[in-house]
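In response to reviewer comment 3 from the previous cycle, which asked for concrete evidence that the modeling workflow produces usable outputs, we include below a single protein chain processed end to end. The sequence was submitted unchanged, and the resulting structure tokens are shown without manual editing.
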Amino acid sequence: MLWASWIVMAAAAGTAAPPPIAEGEVPKGWVVVDPPREAADWSCINQSPEHWKVQGDSADRVSIVAAAATADPGLRVELPDGLLVGENRGEWGGSIEWQPKRPGGGFAYDGLNPAVATVFNGDVFIAEGLMHMDQNRGSVLRFGRGDGPRWRITDPHELGAAPTAGVRANNSDWMLVTSVGVIRMELPRLWPHTLYRNRQWEQIYPDSIRPLGRSWLIGARHGVIRLVPLGERYIEQWLVPASCRQLKAPDCKCAA
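The workflow returned the following structure tokens.
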């Protein structure tokens, strides 16, 4: 799978972005490092005051932005005859509400924590779940209607961890970031494939994903995870600001 994708570094809202950087290059002022090896280092990342997100534009470019400079639009799926709106209140629950344009026929599906959605062949797929305390669960539901007006909701397809972000890889594959890795979901048969897994991600809150060539960029605390293909598997690298190459325990202060 090849993508005409680029990476642009923007440190804060309103900052002019430098020229695009091609796949395999590193944004100016950033460096590539190995992922942490020690538990104390992962704990430091959990305390990092910086959180980065990756986001795309209409030209299939990828930007790295400070999470504080972005707004969460919530889950909204616009269809010709109405809206599916998701509300996620974390440990206090959430719901998915159908808001038709015509009066009548609306409903709310409670007891979910909707995170991200996509549309395939007219059906809406919603990934939901929660990571809180000792709870880490997630699932994908299919909202479909066929040729009729009534919604039919499939039984949840379990993911095994809370989903936090998603992006379409192509017409039929949906890439989902979870609290412990990345899953490629085949939408036609709702079939998950584990692309990469790292239980330590529970501490760094990955919450965005974009393709960059054959690699994947994932926004997280302290830096951006880059998954690079190596044969049939992926290796994990990190892009971090050069001024904060490491977070040193026990005080977790930046070290160049």
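Helices lie at 39-46. We consider this sufficient to address the reviewer's concern, and the full set will be provided in the supplementary archive.
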